């Protein structure tokens, strides 16, 4: 088995996606049932409220478009709010959707705890909630008990795959810069955790880790400073492609050769990053597929028809490097 296939297996993980299955019982988020969840009346069409994190980022644009297009293709009314990168606004947006009396609320949470708390408000109002992309703080809100289901990627597996690839490229020794983001999100915490698991026992050292909030220009600005502080750094791991693309610009401006002198790996798998692999400035990126629309609509419709819905549905993601980037470029978002 080659390295790329090994990494793809890691990303698939033990938690393969479990589809919705029928049951004769009432609405529940698991085969054993969870009577405390709000009931969703079976109807031909639903008004679905979606509290988006933002709409000015390639990944979130792809997510938002996938949900909207799939909902409207099935005849549902889709009401989307845009938090514009603000956790406080996203909480307010969810409260607005509750006030509008939508049938279902879908949240892509910017941060774990505040959005978990407002999820409980939706539950109290009798509106079922589905969480996509990032997880909630489970000490506050539990899938299958406080909201119907989480549908997303295994962020730990993504970080682990990136770390394994980095360790292989560096032969287990080197100094690394980590571009973190967003603090307080499951994406950041879990990708960091997975990366640490992969490099444990090696001589790889993270010499700096700073939060770029998943924004390209922040990645550029951070790297402008960090590359001066650590001119002999061996590798850079960014929690998303946008920060890495910004960091690549800064490294080039500093006279460095990312992808050659400095090993580079990130997460998301967006088209520009896959092209950067082909161009040789990015070594690899762990996919985080944003096309949630069909899976989410299947889950909502199944829940409304009284079927059991798996409370945690984990996507299988790919891994892109020089061996497959040319073939996968057309499929990237």
UniProtKB/TrEMBL annotation:
Coiled coil: none
Matching Pfam families: Peripla_BP_4
Segments forming domain Periplasmic binding protein: 48-286
Gene3D superfamilies named in the record: 3.40.50.2300
Record-linked InterPro entries: Peripla_BP_I, SBP_2_dom
Keyword Signal belongs to the record: yes
Entry keywords, A to Z: Signal
Compartments (UniProt record): Cell envelope
Signal sequence residues: 1-23
Family membership noted in the UniProt record: Belongs to the bacterial solute-binding protein 2 family.
This protein's name: ABC transporter substrate-binding protein
Organism expressing this protein natively: Populibacterium corticicola
